[in-house]
Design brief:
Ankyrin_rpt-contain_sf; mainly alpha; ANKRD13
């Protein structure tokens, strides 16, 4: 197995080569969530190794900041265990941003379902009555 060919982002992170990582991300966006042999994504490896700039670059390129390891640790827990406050702040910032984006994306579907529900938006539903359509 050729590790550099199979896991180029992971190797760049391991070597702390930010310029190489940036170039690889540009041309290998589909590998940003790739698992290495230890079942870690590139951002999980970056956080585990305390590579703040690598983690920042990955987060800025939509790496999943809500990732959970095979041992059940989320990325924020890994950052806290690392003991680097800058890394913790970075992961919290992007994790919260990604969660908000995900919630916002669900709003149009929620509104569509509300519109399709009889009585909810047209005032024909009484939530304080004893009648229930449930």
């Amino acid at each position: 197995m050729n590790i550099e060919r199979e896991f180029p982002l992971h190797v760049a992170i391991w070597n702390n080569d930010i310029d190489k990582l940036a170039e690889l991300i540009k041309h290998n966006k589909d590998r940003i969530e790739q698992f290495d042999p230890r079942h870690r994504t590139p951002i999980q490896l970056a956080v585990c190794l305390g590579r703040v700039e690598a983690a920042r670059l990955l987060a800025q390129n939509d790496a999943d900041c809500n990732a959970v390891s095979k041992d059940g640790w989320n990325l924020l827990q890994e950052a806290i265990a690392n003991g680097n406050p800058s890394l913790v702040k970075l992961i919290m910032k992007y994790r919260n941003y990604q969660r908000n984006v995900q919630r916002i994306r669900g709003i149009p579907e929620l509104l569509r379902k509300l519109k399709e529900s009889p009585g909810i938006l047209n005032g024909n539903s009484s939530f304080d009555s004893h009648e229930s359509s449930f």
